[in-house]
Structure prediction request, 284 residues.
Amino acid sequence: MASHYIGRFAPSPSGPLHLGSLVAALGSFLDARANNGRWLVRIEDIDPPREMPGADSAILRTLDAFGLHWDGEIRYQSQCHAAYDARLAALAARQQSYRCGCTRKQLKAQGLHSRKDCQTPPEGQPAALRFKNDAPVYRFTDRRLGAVEVGQTLAAEDFIIHRKDGLYAYQLAVVSDDIDQGVTHVVRGLDLLDATVWQLGLYNALGASHCHYLHLPLVLGDDGQKLSKQNHADPINDKAPLPALKQAMAYLGLKARDDSSVDALLSDAITQWSWLDDSQPAQA
Prediction:
């Protein structure tokens, strides 16, 4: 069992939680509690155009209704700009980033971004910042999947860390937050599997220790697509949490042996959780 464990659930406030996000939250919560660890909640509100007013409060109410009670204070990414700026400055000082003015049309023609074809705009004009990915990470160990290898072209891409519109990119913000919060274990959906190698590259560049990763299967809709807020997935019902909680447990391979209450279900689920972690972090 892990001797020091800090996990987190980090939803974006673009809408209410649906079954897919409940599965991710539940898996993260159970892993923390089964490992006698702390479980943090972070609201990833760095993309205002995609956010829904009041969604952050709705998400917190839903977690509370489902018995997923977090430890410590909620962290809001919108309050962490100074930390992101400091890490962007550190990367720039080490010449590990560069300005890029490529348009979407140019990027589509290139396929993945190519540094040699990059359009660098004059100083003072809007530009994205890209991470100079000179020491790419191609593989890592996932606690559920084992050895994971990502295609070399994708793994070696110079990905965006600060957007042309002035917003912080997800890759930079998530790594910065996990470092600041001391996160040791990340449990999340399979849709973020490939991006893990980019995040590990940032950990290396920033001289920080890596997390342990566990990527959960995705919940798919009738059309075979991942349930998501963008696809208008139905929100889960805070007023009657037991049915959705039992459904989420089933997706995680757990049996609802005692469904007398939310607390009883969660207590039983913790005893069934089998991903107790004695492994090394994702990348040595």
In short: The chain has one domain: 6-272.
